[in-house]
Amino acid sequence: MKKFLFIDLDDTLFQTMGKCLSNEDLQPAAYLKDGSACSFMTKQQRSFFELMDGEMTLIPTTARNRDALSRVNLPFKSYAIINYGGVILEPNGVVDNIWLEIMREDMNRAQYGLIGLIKLIDEYSELRGFKGRARLIEDFSISFYIVVKDPNKVCENLEQLERDIVQPWILTDGKEYFIHRNGNNLAVLPKTLNKARAVTYLQKRLECEFGDIMTFGMGDSKSDARFMAECDYAIIPKGTQLLSHIVTTV
Ligand SMILES: [Mg+2]
User: Fold this and answer.
1) How far, in Å, is the centroid of ligand 1 from the Cα of 127?
2) Using 50, 70 and 90 to split pLDDT, how confident is the model at 113?
3) CA of 10 to the centre of ligand 1 (A)
């Protein structure tokens, strides 16, 4: 039976230097546009990658866009789910057009709400002297979601923005959207954009191609849990948001 691992990348397979528990034996895994290394793998993470890569097909399942994925230096050879599930790349790097057109239609419907929220966030930031601005993340000429980061990396600023502006909006005009916040990253996404939906779609494609398959899902964030639940088995790295959430709620 063919086995597949749908795997989130950032903070699952590698992380920035600041998040590495020790500086020992780190190797660069992802690069910025200027070519400098920004994310690193520990010895254990490299060993885990080798173990999994030897046993099954790894499918990146990531918020990265195509450009950011191309700056990840790992030998993925199959499909890739990128843009939070908004785009699926085939093993030869070509876009799955059927999925892209489904998403284009759904994202067009969601765009008006996102633009309204950007305006609210920017007005609030201006008023409070908060330096972070909301950005609409686009790829393949499709607007997918909003992201806000604090340039000073003060997580409390994002917490406050979420509480004062984003959450009240979600409860009123934004019922068709959801929040993903992990560290210095506040994202607001249409509910129609999610990794789980793309994983389900791709699993069906893989079943058509290979017959019975076995799937594993792996991620670090609470927002990864849904796509992991679409798989036969779930793997969660130690020290992650998702694992501490589970431990505190059981
Ligand atoms: Mg992650």
Assistant:
1) 31
2) very high
3) 4
At 197-248, the pLDDT tens digits run: 999 999 999 999 999 999 999 999 999 999 999 999 999 999 999 999 999 9
Taking the centre of ligand 1 as the mean of its atom positions, its distance from the CA of residue 12, in whole angstroms, is: 5
Q: What is the DSSP track for 154-204?
A: -HHHHHHHIIIIIHHHHHTTTTTEEEEE-SS-EEEEETT--HHHHHHHHHH
Q: Is residue 67 predicted with pLDDT exceeding 90? A: yes
Q: What distance separates the 2 farthest-apart alpha carbons in the chain? A: 58
Lookup: tokens for 135: 């950005």
For each of the domains in the chain, give its residue range(s) and CATH number, in order of start.
2-86+194-249 (3.40.50.1000), 109-190 (3.30.70)
Q: How far is the CA of 229 from the centre of ligand 1 (A)?
A: 16
CA 66 to centroid of ligand 1, rounded, Å: 16
- Indicate the burial class of 135 (C-beta count within 10 angstroms; 0-12, 13-18, 19 or more): middle
Sheet with 2-7, edge to edge strand ranges? 57-60, 2-7, 213-218, 233-235
